Automatic annotation (TrEMBL), chain A:
An individual GO BP term: vesicle-mediated transport
SMART domains on file: Cornichon (SM01398)
GO cellular component: membrane
Keywords: Membrane, Receptor, Transmembrane, Transmembrane helix
Source organism of the structure: Rhinolophus ferrumequinum
Topology in the lipid bilayer: Multi-pass membrane protein
InterPro entries listed in its UniProt record: Cornichon (IPR003377), Cornichon_conserved (IPR033466)
Family of this protein: Belongs to the cornichon family.
Protein name, per record: Cornichon family AMPA receptor auxiliary protein 1
PANTHER family listed in its UniProt record: CORNICHON-RELATED
Compartments in which it is found: Membrane
Transmembrane domains' residue ranges: 7-29, 72-98, 139-158
TrEMBL record, chain B:
The protein's name: SEC24 homolog B, COPII coat complex component
Composition skew (Pro residues), residue ranges: 419-437
Domain (Gelsolin-like) ranges: 1128-1200
InterPro entries: ADF-H/Gelsolin-like_dom_sf, Beta-sandwich_Sec23_24, Gelsolin-like_dom, Gelsolin-like_dom_sf, Sec23/24_helical_dom, Sec23/24_helical_dom_sf, Sec23/24_trunk_dom, SEC23_SEC24_subfamily
Family, similarity comment: Belongs to the SEC23/SEC24 family. SEC24 subfamily.
CC terms in the record's Gene Ontology section: COPII vesicle coat; cytosol; endoplasmic reticulum exit site; endoplasmic reticulum membrane
Amino acid sequence: MAFTFAAFCYMLALLLTAALIFFAIWHIIAFDELKTDYKNPIDQCNTLNPTVEKVKKIKRVKIALKLVLPEYLIHAFFCVMFLCAAEWLTLALNMPLLAYHIWRYMSRPVMSGPGLYDPTTIMNADILAYCQKEGWCKLAFYLLAFFYYLYGMIYVLVSS
Amino acid sequence: MSAPAGSPHPAASTRIPPKLGGAAVSGAAAGPGPAPHQQNGPAQNQMQVPPGYGLHPQNYNVPSGHYSQGPGKTTSLPLDSQSGGYYSGVYTIPTQNVVTPNTANQQSGAQQIYGRGPPAPHIVGSTPGYFQGAASSSSHLHTSASQPYSSFVNHYNSPAMYSANSPAVSQGFPSTCGHYAVSTVSNAAYPSVSYPSLPAGDPYGQQMFTSQNASTIRSVRENSFSGQNTAVSHPSPLPPPPSQQYHQQLSLSGYSPLSWSASGLPSTQDNLIRNHSGSLATANNNPNAVAESSSCPVMQTVQPPESSPVVSTVVSGASSARAPPTANHLVETVASVTQPSELLQQKGMQYGDYVNNQASSAPTPLSSTSDDEEEEEDEEAGVDSSSTTSSASPMPNSYDALEGGSYPDMLSSSASSPAPDPAPESDPAPAPVPAVPQPSKTTKPFGYGYPTLQPGYQNAAAPLSSGVQPSSPVYSGFQPYAQQYPGMNQLSSSFGGLSLQSSAQPESLRPVNLTQERNILPMTPVWAPVPNLNLDLKKLNCSPDSFRCTLTNIPQSQVLLNKAKLPLGLLLHPFRDLTQLPVITSNTIVRCRSCRTYINPFVSFIDQRRWKCNLCYRVNDVPEEFMYNPLTRSYGEPHKRPEVQNSTVEFIASSDYMLRPPQPAVYLFVLDVSHNAVEAGYLTILCQSLSENLDKLPGDSRTRIGFVTFDSTIHFYNLQEGLSQPQMLIVSDIDDVFLPTPDSLLVNLYESKELIKDLLNALPNMFINTRETHSALGPALQAAFKLMSPTGGRVSVFQTQLPSLGAGLLQSREDPNQRSSTKVVQHLGPATDFYKKLALDCSGQQTAVDLFLLSSQYSDLASLACMSKYSAGCIYYYPSFHYTHNPSQAEKLQKDLKRYLTRKIGFEAVMRIRCTKGLSMHTFHGNFFVRSTDLLSLANINPDAGFAVQLSIEESLTDTSLVCFQTALLYTSSKGERRIRVHTLCLPVVSSLADVYAGVDVQAAICLLANMAVDRSISSSLSDARDALVNAVVDSLSAYGSTVLNVQHSALIAPTSLKLFPLYVLALLKQKAFRTGTSTRLDDRVYAMCQIKCQPLVHLMKMIHPNLYRIDRLTDEGAIHVNDRVVPQPPLQKLSAEKLTREGAFLMDCGSAFYIWVGKSCDNNFIEDVLGYPNFASIPQKMAHLPELDTLSSERARSFVTWLRDSRPLSPILHVVKDESPAKTEFFQHLIEDRTEAAFSYYEFLLHIQQQICK
């Protein structure tokens, strides 16, 4: 039982994954709101002043869309940590997602600032559906990863 | 109607006996409406019918019966009658009128009563009569009535209707006619609305549709028989049995109310009857309503207000009113309606109304409500409150007839409309088709014609036969001829229509062996298929000009749609110029509480107090105010409100629909004045055009205007009132642009007009010696944004080269060696997101950026276009522009500018598209910013913008038989009114694949595919897009072969509805946007793509598949009459060199350009008479005009070219191409059925498809 660098990596990954799960959930909610925005304004707005509610929602969506880059960086960060810790299996499990992130960012629409989503195409139903699906898949991945890291951390702690 | 004395045609009358009866109008009420209707119907029917079912719809409106009186009565009675039904007479009327102008007079005397069925109030109509004498007035009324119907019918019918009306008009009342004509026009455009008014317009109508006229005539005759008389003039009336349709209608509605009592004039009665029938139809829709019948009238009234007063008004009282004075036209029939009696007064009233309307509208702007960004929210509010108001509406004011000047452009609208109208008629029957075209043509004329014609009308009308008439009586001689002709057409068409009904599907499903069929292209233009709905709904349905769906039979589920392999989507032209449009002012805009859908003709009334939304099926309460029908002054007939009688209506919105007070019209011109720009010389043209049109810029007293010029620096102009001359302020810090003074850069147009004119005079010479070659477009746009952001408005950018300084600078990306590459075409997307971000910022501040690119070199349109694409602007591109070296481009710019500066404009608009639960919007195409899944943010909306929407079916539609689509466009008019234009389209749901194929609208499908292909080329690659297009044909034809035919044919079989599909796809593949292997400049290609994205369907189709006509032998056979011109209608030729003979001359209409190809051995007579040169050799290489020669063939050719030209917003350039000239490659590249070095011929393409299918 020793506190190794690998164990530290797992602990850190555990915490960061929790954050990623939070990001993923926010992402899903944001796209869902974009999609259902129009469906029943009345019900949604009954509780509060519609404007306030709307502004809040728009802000929430904007924030969620801006979390993309932090998410990618966080994920890339602990991939590097695992690399340093020589946790090959864990790294291998994360490689597909890392590759996907890189591809996704490379193929983003032309834009000058950071960002992934183009406000002019985001409402396209195909893209919206794709983004929603992406959100769910990532959520699932992060959840599984969370438990895997937990297991990995304990395993490393116990075995060493 | 029938009965009564009047009598209208007995035959018909059978049904309606009661009403007729006596003159008594009242009888109608008592009497059961239906019968009467029928009677009328016959006559009318014939007329209308032919055109297509559409007529019926019109009839429906009528239902009220009121009309019936109209014709006869109206005239005579105007006074009395008013109340009588609005329009029942309408339909008939026209005819009658026609028939007997004299009669009409008599009638007037006679009386009127008809109307009554419905509540008395109406009244309406008679006005005209008053004026003129009974006779004339009556006719007017009738006409008007008819118009309304027709409108309902819409497109399809309308033509027929029109004609009917017009004839009547003409005969009856010269003066009135004018009005009617107008209305007719409008009909064409907007069927639904206002036909009624038409009557007044007559001239047009008559002119326009010869055939229609004929029909009318017929009807007249019929009437005469039945009725007795009306027909007087035409002795030989046809016995006009009422058309079946009518009967149906009648039965449905049950109108009984009937009013026809009409006074004794038979003709009138007929008319009434017809009207009734119309109403019935409507009624059918809403059973309850029907009963009441009154609704119809109401509707009509409403309409009038709208767009063209004329029309709507027509309906009821209107007719009378209108008739008298031309002036009325616009205004309002509606008003008249309301106020039954006084015709004269009515006129006055109408005006008054009009005025009021305006006034009322103006006030609207509220400051308030903070929220509303989107209509919906606001709307909601409105709804809630709605009930409060009660009935302001009754007041004439409430329905404003006019929009202020926006409609001026009727012409343009009409142009667009033409095609559509025909479509509506749809009935496949050949006959109808011809009729249709006419209508459209007519329409155009209307716009203009109105004013002028009026006087002539009556006489003209009589002439029916020809458009000519308007002017003159002289023509009357023609009548006989015309009548006969038309009659024939009508009959055949009507028959056709009937048969179609029963056999429509089979016809559209008839298998066609594509490889065997050499002449796949029909001789006449292709019209939109008519949805297979029942007659009532058909009449009420939205015009295909405004709203089309690629599948007129919606598949029940996504699975079925996938099997069919056809694209499902809508094509919209929401802000089209309309000649008539019901405008509704009411405190309460009735909307579904749950989905916010506006009440429309396709909702169902569960009882008097509740209605069921047709999109979400929620049951809503009918607000108290809605129970009252201001037109009829009756209570308890919500189904007769104009909102429920027209699928296209416009509401004057309350402050609930505003986020801020309506903005004034603000125009900013951002002009490139670098060396390159000065060299090209566009400034002279622009300044000249602008100073000429300064007074015609849409706007009110608050209109503001400003100028910014730029080269490597940015120049602002202080035009503050009080300065002795414009003051130029130069900002050279382009990295951090600021405004030199906070105000006075955008000045009030009227206060500073002198300064503005001075500036416009000085501008062209101010930079004449400039040596500055750089262009700081980006910073100039940023400055423009800062200038505009407090108000919003329109920025017009003129650019002549690649921006080379400051933010947004661009590099040349085009490699000229790649222009004819068959592989990869790069750089179709933007190089930077600067322009897109700028556009989004602008859009957020309600500013649209329109780009005029006049450049001779590559200017990276792909990047620059973003500034317009996302801010809902428009893009114009003039390659190789030079004011002296390229005079045809210069002329085109001049004409385009005229249209651009004077066309209608809407500010701070949003458009929401709703569809029945189960369907969902998928992707939008056009210039806008998508703000929510169904909400498009449009900083500006212009009448030339088209949109496309892809749909998907999310839930099975098995439990519904109809689906509806509704677009609501909320905008601020140039007069500062907040308005909502609502279009509703209703389509049937089918469960079998065969039905899906039967309902394909191939033109809409091809336009949607073109839009999708543009997206694909940008997001993926051009070759992907081309493959996708080919696959669309292969998949759909193979799916058809394997699922519907169930036989594995070796032949390539397509259903008739899809027979043009491969041809159009091939045309697309050879279109500039998608072609490969032919040298195409990148900017040209990108511009073609931009046009595909934002052109409305009618114009896009010409771009994809040009029309080819042989023009060296134009004859008057089948010619139509527009205004007072005879426009020959040569058959369409297929686009193949095999059709070109050296002995002929051919005209190709490519949308943005016309080519006249003159064969080497072309008849010298043609060259001399039309081109003005002695022989082929002496024709110059560059010839861009047809000389005005005083020969018959020259006149024909010119009127044909003018007619084609009038139908589009942008003036096409005419090129005369000699057989030997180098320019002929331009011409030959449009012959898409021929083989080129890089592409298949049509036959090869078919074989290719066949091969793919067999794989």
